[in-house]
Each structure stands twice: as C-alpha cells, then as structure tokens.
Design a protein that fits this description.
325 residues, four-stranded antiparallel sheet, elongated
C-alpha cells in the first residue's frame, strides 16, 4: 500500500468533494485494510503536529533531534497561591476581592516564638531553634511538591502550636486561647482591641465537623507542633472548602478557632493589622449546627463572631489551611 505517500491535504480535498457523509459511505463499501494507528482521526493527528511544530518534525525526521515525553502534574493551586475550584462542584465560589489582602512578612523566628511563649501562658512548645528548623523543612518539602508548591506564592506564616489536650472545645477556646489573643492584640496593635462578640451575643455549642481538624486536635494533645498556615481559599464558600479538603493529603488540616487563635496570637500584626485584611472563616467547626465562626478586623477591633449558613461565598473571606508535612 502506498497510503503513506498521501498528504493530509489530498485526503481533505476528497472529503470536501464527496462531503463527510459521502466519504464515510464510500469508505464503508471499501475492502478492509491493515493500517497503523487506524483509530486516530485526522484532527487528532493535526493536533499532535501542532504541538510538535513543523520545524521540529522535520528536524526529528532528519535525525537531528529527539523528543522527550514528560508526565504533566495537575496543579491544585494557581500561580497566586489560591486553590483551583473543583470542576463540576455545585458549591459556590467567587473571585477574591484584592482590597482585602495579607502582606508576606520577613520572618524573625525568635521574635515570633517569644510572642507565643509570652501570651500562651505555661504552654509547652518546641524550642525557638526547632521552630525555625521545622518551618524551613516544611517550606523545602512544599517547594519540592509540584502539585502544591504554588501555596508558597501566597502568604504563609510559620506557627508553633503548644502541647494541649482539649477536653471541652468551647471552654478551652474561651478560657485560654482567646485570652491570649486579647492580650497579644491589645499590646501589639495600639488603639485596637479584641472583641469576643460571639460569647456575649450568641451563646451556643461548638462542634468539630471536619475530620482533619479532629486529627489536628489529637496531634496537639500528644505534643507541640510546628506548621505553616496558609490562606488559599479567599472567595470560597465554607461548603466548597470542606469539599476540597476531602481530597487533600493527610498532611493538610483545615483550620478551626483554636489553632487560628494561636496563629493570631503570634502574628496579629499580619493577620489583623487593619480593616483591609480578610475575614477568616473557621470552617472546621460549626456553632449550634447552623452557624459558622470567624475572625474579622473591623474599623476599631478584631472580632470573633458567627454567621448563619455555610453555602455563601464572600470575596473578602478565606478559610485557613495548616501544613504539618
């Protein structure tokens, strides 16, 4: 057979002359023949040639170059450090509002460690040196992870979490962790204060609703931890965040108010410097089943509050993610 001498243009001319239906009908009356790659359409062949490029094809046929095939890894995080919404998800997300943003600081590990030790009284932490060592190790791990390395393009904060056994989530949150936020915020952000609004106005129960947060709380009970805190969900509804968390690796944990209170105690100047920082959904828990909890910087204060529902997406809100490696 001499079909290998027939050009794509020649085939296209015949199809154009006969029409596609006529060409298929004529082909169906022809005797069967043995041909390589019979399942490929001319369109698919053309697509491959477009990828390679005419000049490269000619050089390859001449033996001047070779082609190397590499597997493409689908990234889950975009170039700005935000998770890419799941295709086909029915949960709502919207574009983030750029006015509400965080600014990546230069990290002075000793200074940040001292804040944790000062305001989280009688807590057991790793050493300041270990805090920096583990944080840098986590950064290195992510840099070498092609699927999640873009997280480092967004704002990240190293956090040292104390060893702490949570026996009553609400009691421990209100009686210990938020007290640390109160003292840290007032001292480090002059003229502003912390307002536990939810405690005064909305008495209720806190329930962990995310499996990764259950694991995080269990890990914290066994010993002090070091993690990187990310904010890659701005514009995602809480339901969209929880859906995405279900497919993330076990090294990643959804933030609740206890761990976020630790981050806020250490980094109040970054997380709540003024009104134009994001609202932080604590998506790993619910308040009286129907409400979500959040931290938000208002015009005059940092407020801990709750909101009805989990399905709405807000351009200024983000959930937080912890990476423990």
């Amino acid at each position: 057979m001499n079909h290998h001498k027939v050009s794509i243009e020649s085939v296209a001319r015949v199809v154009m002359a006969l029409g596609l239906d006529g060409f298929k009908k004529l082909s169906s009356h022809m005797p069967a023949c043995s041909v390589k790659y019979a399942g490929f359409t001319i369109g698919e062949v053309e697509a491959i040639l477009n990828i390679l490029g005419e000049a490269n094809i000619k050089r390859m046929l001449a033996g001047d170059v070779t082609i190397e095939i590499k597997e493409l890894i689908q990234k889950m995080v975009d170039k700005n450090g935000r998770f890419i919404p799941l295709v086909g998800s029915k949960n709502y997300d919207c574009n983030p509002k750029p006015d509400y943003k965080l600014i990546q600081p230069d990290i002075n590990y000793a200074e940040r460690f001292n804040k944790a030790a000062k305001f989280l009284h009688n807590a057991i932490f790793v050493s300041a040196e270990e805090y920096q060592k583990r944080s840098e190790k986590l950064i290195e791990q992510l840099q070498n992870d092609p699927m999640f390395s873009n997280l480092l393009n967004g704002v990240w904060l190293p956090v040292c979490y104390p060893e702490f056994r949570v026996s009553d989530y609400k009691k421990d949150l209100f009686g210990y962790f938020l007290n640390a936020v109160t003292a840290s915020y007032a001292l480090q952000i002059p003229g502003r204060y912390f307002n536990n609004y939810i405690k005064v106005v909305f008495p209720g129960k806190i329930k962990i609703v995310d499996e990764s947060h259950e694991r995080f709380i269990a890990k914290m009970a066994k010993g002090p931890l070091v993690g990187l805190q990310f904010f890659p969900f701005q514009g995602f509804s809480i339901n969209a965040v929880r859906e995405l968390m279900s497919i993330l690796p076990k090294s990643m944990y959804l933030s609740g108010p206890i761990d976020f209170a630790v981050a806020m105690t250490i980094h109040p100047d970054i997380l709540a410097r003024d009104y134009f920082t994001p609202c932080y959904d604590c998506s790993a828990v619910s308040w009286d089943s129907s409400y979500s909890t959040y931290f938000v910087a208002t015009q005059e204060s940092l407020r801990f509050d709750c909101a009805l529902g989990f399905g709405n997406a807000h351009s200024h809100s983000t959930s937080s993610l912890i990476y423990l490696g």
